[in-house]
Amino acid sequence: MSTPLADRIRPRSLEEMVGQEHLLGEGALLRRIAQGKNIPNMIFYGPSGVGKTTAARIIAASAGKKLERLNGTTASTGDIKAIIAGREGFDALDGVLLYLDEIQYLNKKQQQTLLEFIEDGSITLIASTTENPYFYVYNAILSRSTVFEFKPVTAGEIQKSLRRALDLIREEDPAIALEEGVLEHIAATCGGDVRKAVNALELVWLGASAREGTENRLLTLEDARAASQRSAMRYDREGDEHYDLLSALQKSIRGSDPDAGLHYLGRLLEAGDLLSPCRRLLVIAAEDVGLAYPLAMAVVKACVDSALQLGLPEAQIPLAEAVVLMATAPKSNSANAGIEAAMADIRAGKGGPIPRCLQNRHYDGADAKVKGQFYRYPHDFPGHWLEQQYLPDALAGTVYYRYGENKTEQAARSYWEAVKAKVRGSGQNPR
């Protein structure tokens, strides 16, 4: 079986790597560490195909230590114990450097097995993960390691790798010709994943056909589009990208940017995820539009119901309406801020007995010093209001809800201020 093109052009030195200038550029911290001999415990975190494994291999190879490799998807506790036992060998006098790919797949017990030997320095760990290490890596290992975040590679940098790959293709297949725009299209649509880009180019090469009247086999833009369709999507319903997209959707609508809101909705729907944006749009209607436009909740609920009945692709239409409606609507988080403040007091133990006048009982025990419920029915008073204590005694006078600075809530505020002023001024508000 031939080696994949992406592996054949894998960089052998930091100079050959593309992207990650913030980590590996001239003078950057990780580059200086890699150029030294004292390698600390490190965790490389970032999406697939951006150079985590390549950087780890290059650094490990130059460390002067016995190099061991494990992959978290297949490693067993026995594999880990074998590496620990091997650190006593002659070839491990300077210690063992363990490169552990996909560390998130090791369970807590397996990670703990390494801990003692990481701590005493007999094993140096370089681990990589596509998942947030603060969620998936054992805290004791995290505290002994430095986390470096790798980012998606830009299209311009990916083109450098594609040109290297193309040079190798031409060495093996001199009859290959390239249509204009192929490399640019693949680089732009691979979602910052170098490996995915090179794999797409290899696929186009393997499917290339001869041009009429020539012996050349042409790599076409049409084939490049077919090979890279949907490849720009980075999405895992259980992964960080899922929650990042939902967060971006809500923050864009909260920030009143309909264009960004539609963009992030589109990314979720293009990945085939219908339920998640439906749920998040309902949250946004309550949390971010709120009482500034109370009807938004009803409209968004109707859009969500329609989307779920229609299914994709038609579901995109009512959901887009919901996004634009809320992004361009006035905003208020006053109700949410109020309930958060109330629950904070409850969690802090503030409360006390419900006032007697609000309790759902109409008799008093023998121990009651003052008998009677003393509840007064607001509808029996002018303006349907009277002053009456509703909060427990310990919280009397506490204000949780503050009217938002929008037309709807300010109208409600003006209405109730007028009613209360009239009742208080009339002297018809018995206490």
Topology as a string of helices (H) and strands (E):
HHHEHEHEHEHHEHEHHEEHHHHHHHH
Strand content range: 5-15%
Biggest sheet strand order reads 2-3-4-1-5
Mean pLDDT: 85
Which segments are poorly predicted (pLDDT under 50) over 5 or more consecutive residues?
A: none
Structural class: alpha/beta
> Rounded to an integer, what's the Rg over CA atoms?
32 Å
First and last CA, distance: 90 Å
The main β sheet shows up as: 5 strands, parallel
Helix percent band:
40-55%
Number of strands: 8
The total count of helices amounts to: 19
**How would the global form be characterised?**
flat
Features:
single chain; three-stranded mixed β-sheet; flat; 48% helix; 19 helices; 431 residues; 8 strands; alpha/beta; five-stranded parallel β-sheet
Could you please describe the fold and organization of this structure?
- The structure is a single chain.
- With 431 residues, this protein is an alpha/beta fold.
- It is 48% helix and 8% strand.
- The protein has a 5-stranded parallel β-sheet, with helices on both faces. The protein has a 3-stranded mixed β-sheet with strand order 6-8-7.
- The relative contact order is 0.07.
- The mean pLDDT is 85.
